[in-house]
Structures are given as C-alpha cells and as structure tokens.
Batch of 3 targets.
Target 1
Amino acid sequence: MRIIAPMMMLLILLSPLSGCVGDDSSEELDTVVPIPDLTAPNQHGENVTLSEFRGTMLVILFNAADWCGYCNDEANRTEELLQSMEGLDDRYTVSFVELLNDNAEGTKIASQEDAMNWSEYSNNSHSVLHGQATRDYIEETFDREDIPGFPSYLIVDLDGVARSWVVGINEPIVAEDVQVQYDAYLQDLNQN
C-alpha cells in the first residue's frame, strides 16, 4: 500500500507528458509528392497557406504548448534557429511555420489567443498556426508518417515535398539539416 500512493502520484504528474516525444530520431523520406496543403489562421488572425512557401526551404515545427517542457524549449530557440538557417547558405530562402496543437493546459485546441501568447512568450516572429484545421492536419500527418509526438520538425523542399523529419529533443534540428536537404534536393534535380 505504501508504494501504491507514490506510484499513483507519479502517474498523475507524468500523464501530461504523454504526448511529448520519448524517442529521438530523424528520418529521410522517400516520398516525392508535395505535402498536403493547409490553410489556417496565425496568431494575428491572418490565414496562412503552406503552399505559399513553395520556392523556399520550409521548416514546419509541430508543437504542443506549455504542458510539454520540450515544446517550450524548442519554441524558445526557434528565432535563433531561424536566423542561423537564414545565415548559413545564400542559395535558398528559409521559411518557418509552427503548428500549435493545443492550449497551455493541453485541454483544448489552440485558439488565436493561445497562439499569440505562445508567440509572445517565445519571442518569435514566424507564423504560429492554430485552430481545428491545424489540429486535424497535425493528427493526420502524425498518423501518416508514424511520428511519435511533439516537438517534431518537417523539412520541406522548394517544390513542397517533405524531405526529412527531425523528431525528438536530444539531437534537435540545426541549420545544417536544412542545408543537407537542399543539397539532396539539388542532387535529385540533376538526376532527373
């Protein structure tokens, strides 16, 4: 009986982390079809469409909110990450979009207020998409690509094709990951 109470408390405390990533990995993708499109509002209430970023190397951060400590860490480093991606290689332009799954407590779909608070808290300039369409897109993408949880990055090439997933927190995405995928994109173009 003395063990049951502490174990129950531990279970209750850890349950909010169940959507956070426990597995760190990155995966090159073999698909050559563009990612499904998404149009959703950003933190300012403006509709953003992912296909508008074709012609750039698009990095999409699939993220939860405050309840996921790893997600906080990633959100807080995205502005610096974007600047390092933009400054690394002048052969391409980098675009960055974050898809926010839920509110700070993890109990509801992220609203515009949640997205604005998240953006301000993280001091980010990129679009933070939210709402039902965003939640549906995250769920469909995670199911299709067998992604274990948040935070996860998808690197998309100039033609809108997913090139690589970076999942997890021990080996987070770096600017060179985008450069590697751009070089692979060029190599694929030269072979065709």
Target 2
Amino acid sequence: MSENLQLSTLYPSMSRSALIFLALVALAGLTLWYVWQGWQITYLSSKVIASRLERDELLAQRDRLKLEVIRAWSLENIERIAKERLGMKKVPPKTLQLPPP
C-alpha cells in the first residue's frame, strides 16, 4: 500500500495500470532501439569490409597499371616499336658521323 501512496503522490492523475503500461512501452522502445543499433553495427561492418575489399582490388589494379607503364616506357619496348612499326634500324656506333662543331 505504501507504493500506491508514493505513486499516487508523484502522479496523482495516473492509475497504477497506466504507469505499468508506460513502463512496458518504454521497455519495448529501449528493446527496439537496442535491436536497431545491433542491426546498424552489422550493416556498417559489412560495408566496411566491402570497402576494404574494393580498396584492395583498386590497389592491385594500380600496381598492375604502374608495371604496365614501366614496361611500355622501357628502352627495349621503345626499340622494338621503332623497328617493327616504324621500320627503323639500329645504327652501329662506328658508322655514325656527327657534324663538326
């Protein structure tokens, strides 16, 4: 009975069943918030993992492209293109004549 006096003094217009209902609604709200928060953590964790995988793929692609650029600009490749596509020939150093200074 002392609880009824305390509840009635704090909330004089509310009955005990209304207070219990409000407490249950608050508990249900907190439970839903907890579940939603857990779902958000799972969802965001999966997005982080997917982003890391994409980053790793992009870094590997960048490394492949760097290697391709190095190969394309190598002296061997330039010499091969000059011979095959442009029909150039390598001149031996003996026959090269430079104009006088």
Target 3
Amino acid sequence: MRKRSGISTLIKLAVLLIVIGLIGFAGYRIQQIRQAGSHSEAVVEVMKNMIPGLGEDTGISTGKGKDPLPALSIDNIDIVGCLEIPALDLMVPVTASGIEEDGFVSVKSGSPVKGKFRLTGNRDDVFRNLAEAKPGDKVSFTDVEGVRYNYRVTTQFHLKNWDEADNDLMVCYDTDSQTQFVLGCSAAE
C-alpha cells in the first residue's frame, strides 16, 4: 500500500505543478496583451499629434494616397496608418507589410489605392470583438499623410482558401491554421 500511496502523491504533485504552470503562463499572456494594448494606445496618441484630422470622422474619403503606402517610424515600428471601427470603439495603428506586433494590425496584402486591401490582427487582443461588427458599420483607414479611406461593412465570413471576393477592404484574423474570419468591406463615399 505504501508504494501506491507514494505514486499517488507523486501524481498529485505533478498535476499540481502542471496546473500552477498553466495558471502562471495564462497570467503572463494576459499581462503581455495589456502591455501591447497600452503600447498601441501610446502610438495612436503620437499619431494624433502628427496626422491632421486622425480620429475625426468627417464622413468623407479625402482622396487617393500613395502606393506603396508611406511609413512613419514610431518606437522603431514602421507605421503606415490607423484603422478605425467606431462601432467597436477600435482605433489601432497599422504596421507595414510583414511587421507583426502585439496590439497592432498589419498590412497583409493590397493597398487602399489599388484595392483588395487586407489587414490582419490577433483575435485575442486587437480583434477580440471583431465578430460584433455588423453590415453597414463604418470602417476607415487613414494613412500617415492624413489621407482617409472610408468603408462600410458588407459581410462576415469564414474562409478556408484565401479568396479576396469583391471586397475593397478585408479585416481578418486566423481562427485556426487553415481558416480565417473575414470582415468584408466596400468603399464608401
């Protein structure tokens, strides 16, 4: 009986250590997400001081900007603009293509000038409420020179093989290794 009791105690101790490790990792990840949110909010404040009219909904697209998008380095991160979805109280910096940063959105492909503009972010932090956006909601992207592009949400869908469909702007996050949640938007005047 003693051997069983010893083995049972070791198993309980191993399970306890695993649970403590998982709780510690979850706490660490939550802290990372909070810090990322603070960092992106600080970058947005810097952008508001540098880009005229950022965050002010004039309801008007201000015209065609440059392609490729001009970039501005803030805290050693190349920023190309800001994504706003007022219905979700979301205002987040957008990094240049290939630059992924927690708490930020990244250009995946396309551009607001040429169309098929695809932005990606993390569903656990910046896009945690993205699925709450509804058809008709306003979405805007403002580049670092202050050129604003307005869109309206037209659809939501899950996608296994990337197909850009007829959307001028796609705001996405991965739901698993082969599927993305996509918020499809059309240009609005």
